[in-house]
Amino acid sequence: MQKWARFAILGAMLVTAYLLVLAWQKDYGHNTNTAVQQSSVAVASNDVSADLPNSQNTAATDVPQASNTAASQTNNTAATSDQKLITVQTDLYRLWINPKGGDIVRLELLNHDSSKNSNQPFVMLESDKDRTYVAQSGLIGANGPDSNASGRPSFEIEKTNYSLADAKTVNAKNGQAEKVISIPMVYKTANGVEIVKTFTFTQGQYPINVDYKVINRSQQNWQGQFFGQIKRDDTIDPGKSSQGIFQLGTYLGGAWGTPDEHYNKLKFTDFNDEKLNVQAKGGWVAVVQHYFVSAWIPGTLKLSQANGEPYTADLQSRKSPDHMNIIGFTSPTITVPAGTAMEVDATFYSGPKVQSELKDLAVGLNQTVDYGWLWPIAKLLFLGLETFHKLVGNWGWSIILLTVVVKLILWPLSAKSYRSMAKMRVIAPEMQRMKEEFGEDRMRFSQEMMALYKREGVNPLSGCLPMFLQMPIFLALYWVLMESVELRHAPWLGWIQDLSAMDPWFILPLIMGATMFGQQMLNPQPADPMQAKVFRLMPIIFTVFMLFFPAGLVLYWIVNNSITILQQWFIGQSVKKAREKKEAS
């Protein structure tokens, strides 16, 4: 029985290691660091019209077909091709808008560095010779200016630079005053239709409101559809980070959700074969990468003086002829009678995957912080970390406090297991005597062993329990550290300046190995020499595993092992004294 207990404990440890490696291989892949050009903004010179809905060309289009395929009735004004980009800077980001089409062609996150030792902002969106990742929006259909064969519309703009100095104070829906920057862009047709595209930015918030207002002063009805989409190439995830011989980076690809199906992944390779084509009210589409996400959330439609109502959008994905990955939405066909006006809008988010902010934008969008199949445990762990961080202001100390709380919660179960293991250590001499006495008679030896276990109240399999209890918690914390942007580049103390990265000096893994060895010494030693040798190697094997894992994860294991050593020592002393007292009486 004891032999099987040993194998069970060894199996639990190996399963933990295997699941960690499996999770590592699933989440991480090859990466080569690419330098990000920060000094200037370059926009791809190729015409992006082919990426947009085209009501006249139904063949081989790389964007969703407008539902109204009648020929365009819009009479375009002349478009200038040498317009400068519009620059917008808030307290959270700096971005650039192309007046031709009104696309966001570059976005830099000012509060997130491109790397740990860089003062350059993290680049989310960009369009240059090295990388294409942009947010596009417009009006398509019979009269939509983005469906014209002559190309995207060129908007008239008031100026090319905006900052918080241009912000105006308004009252939000919650009654609080907010500072917002509004950027109107105007496009007029010869037959009297005026289209105003407005970007609205709010201080301290990442979501951007994109609003279209169509004022129909012509003699005919106006028809069109609003679309929003994200276009990205197959370049690597810039959010990935190097971890020694490992290259880190989680899921990179598309995602979408509806009120009925909250969160669904869609790999870039499946944008055609398993393309998205879903109608939903209250849905969203996104491109997800490590720590960050870009998403479109369809908004409301307001005709004339009526109140705005959410519209049912078509969520779609596709591959462009030049192999770009495109995921987006289109609104239903909108009819604006002559002499009236309409407004339609959507929200665009591009920034860190902060769960508290994403959950308020759309149902399921916060699940882009993907904690894997152990997400219930992971969410509880993150909630605990967040609570402690509010108290101590440091994620490293928060991990230590969380470990203490977890150990206290599991204390009754683990104490029972450690007490049984301590009893096995105390009765080890008796077991050795019985082996020498009944070694040749295996059946008698087994009977005597079972009688001894029963008499002493020992469960030889109880030693597996602590490992099985810790395994899901350890794996869930791994995903928390890998997916929570709050811990990206978070320092602890001294040489540990990034808890989500490996210990650069390998000090924590070595300490972890030492604590694991110390814990092993308090356990009853295997009688079988081969088993004993394997168990002596386990601290070395796990130390090697932990060399390249996040420092925060290794810190958790060190604290957990240290508390376990103290717990086992006190329990061992208690069992030993009880045994001596029993023998004396």
From TrEMBL:
Keywords: Cell membrane, Chaperone, Membrane, Protein transport, Transmembrane, Transmembrane helix, Transport. The keyword Membrane applies. Pfam families: 60KD_IMP, YidC_periplas. One of its GO terms (molecular function) is membrane insertase activity. Residues 65-76 have a biased composition (Low complexity). One of its GO terms (biological process) is protein insertion into membrane. It is found in: Cell inner membrane; Cell membrane. GO terms for cellular component: plasma membrane. Residues 52-76 are annotated as: Disordered. Residues 86-382 form the Membrane insertase YidC N-terminal domain. It is a multi-pass membrane protein. The chain crosses the membrane at residues 395-415, 458-481, 534-559. Its main location: membrane. Residues 395-571 form the Membrane insertase YidC/Oxa/ALB C-terminal domain. Interacts with the Sec translocase complex via SecD. Specifically interacts with transmembrane segments of nascent integral membrane proteins during membrane integration. Belongs to the OXA1/ALB3/YidC family. Type 1 subfamily. Required for the insertion and/or proper folding and/or complex formation of integral membrane proteins into the membrane. Involved in integration of membrane proteins that insert both dependently and independently of the Sec translocase complex, as well as at least some lipoproteins. Aids folding of multispanning membrane proteins. HAMAP family: YidC_type1. This is Membrane protein insertase YidC. The lineage of its organism: Bacteria, Pseudomonadati, Pseudomonadota, Gammaproteobacteria, Moraxellales.
